[in-house]
Amino acid sequence: MASSYQSLEAELHDPFWEAEGPSAELPLIQTFLAHFPGTSLEIGCGSGRLLIPLLLEGFEVEGLEPSADMLTLCRKKTAVVGLEPVLHAGTAEEFTPDKRYAAALIPAFTLQLCPDPALALKRIADLLKPEGGLYLTVFTPDAELEGDLPENEWYPDHEVRLPDGRIGAVETKHRLDEPNRLLHRDHRYTLMNADREPISSHECSQTLRWFEPAELHALLVEAGFEHFEGIADFEETFAFPQDADAQILTVIARRS
Prior knowledge:
Strand content: 35-45%
């Protein structure tokens, strides 16, 4: 997983998600965790967008996150609501805990930022108890693939007004590498006052990988997972990987 989400990219991450409305993923995760009692691990927990509501619901979830800025934000947010979560700094590829987990969560397309997803999945399987659960969500960048967004040109991506009246915005430029199923993105983040005068800015890049369902299934089997269930666009269940016609694909599995 690339160590990104620093500065404004970290600060504006949750407000951009929250502007989209309630999380469609959270109820699925809650249902999933109910089947795997015990301590679970959210990989790429960020500043706690999903971790905090899960903890408030009584689930035992620890967080793993490579970004120091995101972990700092998470600790600040959890302190406000009286929580003291167990947070780990690092990536799934390098994390070596002294225990195994009942379940692992890889929500919000986190796996797609991993430079070596096959290795990441194998290491995640090693973190689980026998029959431990896996929750994983990935997406296909349909807007870029279908040309709805201009390639190699800057375009407005997200904008949100913060509770204190400031405005956060990000512009994006992308480049597709379709043969290798890679999406390269450049981002320009800007924080403005209420009159839209710039206060600060931050530029960053990321590379995101997308998967064909059969490819993802093969990676999961190789890593040691079985008993698959698919959910299309957070709504309809199906027998993964068959009939996986969805932009957003959630896979639930168990460690062999």
